[in-house]
């Protein structure tokens, strides 16, 4: 009887602590939003747009902290190590699901040590021909490839989604394409504009200004449907490769074991922010199609991405 009473008191104390924790959130303590890439890129910009909206919605200080390096792994490790009290979250990019297979020394378990809070949104990547290239359509590129003409394509780096998606396409179709990795979008687009790499693939946000100015020619988008920002550019799927779908994506993560009430409150606030025209218009201006679904969707989404690309990386001996 005494043991039962003690057990009941312990359970009640734990439940009361969780409830008090949830009721106290958010307190005067600032919320830290870790952008897992350096300033200037899409992760940084998405983080700052969200932080502005969350400050207004929660009436709370939200600080963006850029912790870049190792394709987002250093910042993600900082999130994994943080207290699960609802005051540390991170914004990640699609490399998040590739890193576990590409970097064997990863210091955390992507699924066990993190909470996948919210799938913010997706965006097409765009395959472009460099300035001065005779290519004006994806159909011409495919015809060249089927005629066994070699080609090369640049991406923001080895293991990026652009690299893996086009490498998979080339392998499945028997195209003789060579990957040329760059250290980021700036150098990639500079070489594409200069004609130093014949093809390049990057996010819509990265590519569109250069396409609009005529410095590169968009050939195809990597999503299953066309982009409203480039409605005349076909998808790879509709161009003879049904089922091809490789969107860029962004999401919010947190440490494991965030109390459920806190996670619910944060996600509710985040969804309200994503519906705010002041926020959604800025994200959509970057070519991002807002999603906003929580862990019930984001966690299995990440698991599928990890499984898909881990197999491809292993089967093709892809290393950095």
Could you describe the 3D structure shown?
With 320 residues, this protein is α/β, with parallel strands linked by helices. The protein has eleven helices and eleven strands. The chain has helices at 2-24, 42-58, 73-81, 99-102, 138-146, 161-173, 185-194, 204-212, 260-275, 277-285, 295-315, and strands at residues 31-35, 62-66, 88-93, 114-123, 125-129, 151-155, 177-181, 199-203, 217-221, 248-255, 289-293. The strands form two sheets. A six-stranded mixed beta sheet has the order 2-1-3-10-4-11. Strands 7-6-8-5-9 form a five-stranded mixed beta sheet, sandwiched between helices. Helix 6 links the parallel strand 6 (151-155) and strand 7 (177-181). Helix 2 packs across helix 9 (260-275) and helix 2 packs antiparallel against helix 10 (277-285). The longest helix is centred in the N-terminal third of the chain and has 23 residues, at 2-24. The radius of gyration is 22 Å and the shape is globular. The N and C termini lie far apart (61 Å). The model is unreliable at 4-22 (pLDDT under 50).
């Amino acid at each position: 009887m005494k043991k039962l009473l003690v057990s009941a008191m312990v359970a009640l104390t734990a439940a009361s602590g969780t409830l008090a924790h949830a009721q106290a959130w958010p307190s005067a303590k600032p919320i830290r939003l870790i952008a897992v890439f350096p300033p200037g890129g899409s992760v940084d910009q998405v983080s700052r747009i969200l932080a502005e909206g969350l400050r207004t919605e929660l009436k709370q200080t939200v600080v963006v902290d850029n912790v870049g390096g190792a394709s987002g792994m250093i910042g993600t490790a900082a999130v994994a190590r943080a207290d699960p009290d609802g005051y540390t979250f991170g914004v990640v990019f699609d490399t998040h699901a590739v890193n576990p297979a590409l970097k064997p020394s990863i210091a955390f378990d992507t699924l066990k040590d993190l909470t996948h809070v919210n799938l913010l949104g997706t965006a097409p990547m765009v395959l472009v021909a460099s300035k001065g290239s005779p290519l004006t359509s994806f159909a011409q590129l495919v015809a060249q490839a089927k005629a066994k003409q070699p080609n090369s394509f640049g991406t923001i780096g080895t293991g990026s989604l652009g690299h893996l998606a086009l490498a998979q396409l080339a392998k499945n179709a028997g195209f003789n394409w060579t990957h040329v990795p760059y250290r980021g979008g700036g150098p990639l687009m500079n070489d594409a504009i200069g004609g130093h790499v014949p093809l390049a693939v990057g996010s819509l946000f990265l590519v569109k200004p250069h396409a609009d100015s005529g410095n590169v020619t968009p050939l195809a988008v990597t999503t299953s449907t066309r982009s409203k920002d480039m409605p005349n550019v076909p998808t790879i799927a509709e161009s003879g490769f049904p089922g091809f779908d490789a969107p860029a994506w962004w999401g919010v993560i947190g440490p494991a074991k965030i109390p459920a009430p806190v996670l619910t409150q944060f996600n509710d606030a985040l969804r309200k922010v994503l519906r705010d025209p002041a926020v959604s218009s800025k994200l959509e201006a970057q070519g991002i199609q807002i999603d906003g679904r929580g862990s019930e969707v984001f966690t299995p989404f990440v698991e599928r991405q990890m499984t898909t690309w881990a197999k491809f990386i292993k089967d093709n001996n892809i290393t950095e």
